[in-house]
């Protein structure tokens, strides 16, 4: 990468001019309407489940916003400009400075594999990879221009490594020419990144539409020599107490594409700690590297231990690192379950007055019952947050376990779908996130 910079110093004025032109782009008035439509449709779509409780979901809204407001550094722009198919994908990682740094440091592996069926072409443009993670960049192209909703569906690997997968839909428009996205493969428990990533996927409107279709297959070569040995490990092993709740931060591993930090919660804590609102890593210059927003933000080890993932500063090589946090969403352990009688349309127990049951309906499509909750919440920290409040698993009065296949949200309302079956009321549902908090000033020296 240094060679690239030295040989192109004369091009910096042009790059700066290019950046200025990009900054002056006027966002079309239709984008706002597309965002609203994407939000409305996306909230009703089936939320994909992954192995980890903390897997994040790529929302169509976020991708539309990124497409409308791409602002990337001249260094990254110049680098990917010479890689076919990758220049337009920079916007997909624009909110992750660790991935931008990886690209600046020549970490992208171009691929360029394509398959075409029924007028739709899928191109695997390139990958970013290290020992814990592979991010696949892809492009969908509508070759015959037909009006149809098309996105990736049923994404998996032919070889069943221990991993989780995060991907999403870029939009649900019927009129489109091409669109880009990423698939994030996260390897767990010592599972090795393979030499050949044997990607399987289906392409269509939704999972039901592609049920009988064959998988599209891509054999993606991974140059493991490019990242061999590129990680740094630090033993933190420090405990903090916030409002009586003990939290221990264990080993921190810095990879080129992300940072993994082990966190353990004292089993004797009186509260269940869900998520940190503002946890971040800060260097000696005050530059912060936050959690992963567009991908997998964490993984569960067991009931009281997890790994949190942060944007990587591997290529920054800071002299000092600090862990900072001020607010944690948490709830008393004796308030983690709620009871609902769907026949009587009553919420029999709730953690507080903010969560109420406002309706019990039935889906015309498949006859599922829909529990509609309202969560009243005026905390500024939650202004733009959509809560996935409840675990997908629930029990009936006999103690038998069932599983919901779908949830949805719209504004302050949350929908929970109950498959058709014989249940004994009331149903017991478990809270997995809630907008009540504990607060404190965490600042730990980590390097």
TrEMBL record:
Residues 232-339 form the DUF5643 domain. InterPro entries: DUF4179 (IPR025436), DUF5643 (IPR040680). It comes from the Bacteria. It holds the Pfam family DUF5643. The keyword Transmembrane helix applies. The chain crosses the membrane at residues 54-80. Gene3D superfamilies: bacillus anthracis domain. Keywords: Membrane, Transmembrane, Transmembrane helix. Residues 47-140 form the DUF4179 domain. This is DUF4179 domain-containing protein. It comes from Paenibacillus lignilyticus.
